[in-house]
């Protein structure tokens, strides 16, 4: 059971990460991958996203979420790559990969980690757009998504 968490400023290649992750998992019957991207919407256009974080706390929190997912869903491996700093629209922010013997555990493991990441990891978002910068508040839907795992 393998957990790997990387927090970095540098851009990553999502496809290369998946290939590397699956390379040494011959017993895996399923790998689920989630890649979150910086997006702009017509009603609130942005040019970039700035993510600030607490390095030590973020590393420990994400490792804890990942280890919980390994144990809860009997995963073979999980890897999380999360960026910080300034990212342009279309660039990746986060990638979560979960491997298991069966697909449902892989899906659940990746969802579990993302739901906890969105609400409890010490990252703070600031959007940069034509009107300046704006801190992003937590969304109620993220809290609701996380609650399903506490039942």
Q: Which outline best applies?
A: globular
CATH topology: Aldehyde Oxidoreductase, domain 3
Major beta sheet summary: 4 strands, mixed
N→C terminal distance? 25 Å
Q: How would you name the CATH homologous superfamily?
A: Molybdopterin biosynthesis MoaE subunit
The chain-level mean pLDDT equals: 93
Q: How many DSSP helices?
A: 4
In total, the number of domains comes to 1
Oligomeric composition of the shown chains:
single chain
Order of secondary-structure elements: EHEEHEEEHEEH
Bin the helical content: 25-40%
Helix-strand category: alpha+beta
CA radius of gyration: 16 Å
Tally of strands: 8
Strand residues, percent? 25-35%
Largest sheet, order of strands side by side? 1-4-6-2
CATH architecture classification:
Alpha-Beta Complex
Low-confidence spans: none
Name the CATH class.
Answer: Alpha Beta
Keywords:
single chain, 151 residues, alpha+beta, Aldehyde Oxidoreductase, domain 3, four-stranded mixed β-sheet, four-stranded antiparallel β-sheet, 4 helices, 34% strand, globular
Give an overview of the whole structure.
The chain has 151 residues and is of the alpha+beta class. The protein has one domain: Molybdopterin biosynthesis MoaE subunit (Aldehyde Oxidoreductase, domain 3), CATH 3.90.1170. The protein has a four-stranded mixed β-sheet, with helices on both faces. Strand 7 and strand 8 form a beta hairpin. The longest helix is centred in the middle third of the chain and has 19 residues. It is globular, with a radius of gyration of 16 Å. The chain starts with a strand and ends with a helix.
